[in-house]
Amino acid sequence: MKVRKIGNSLGVILPRDILNTLGVEEGDTVDIVQTEDGRIELAVVDREADDLMSMAEEIMAENRAVLRAIAK
Fold it and tell me: Which residues form the SpoVT-AbrB domain (predicted)?
């Protein structure tokens, strides 16, 4: 697999069969982790959990002052 320029970044294009196996579609989120032995692991982020996390982050940002007051 070749590293290619994508916009201002570098990246790799995953073959369609791997994307299909992972169940990944355009716009999905994946986590990339380097293991202790130097390998790279790619994991699909649970879409529902990702959506819930985004909603929680938005609510916390909108209510930061209230949450700080409650924490005291």
Answer: 4-50
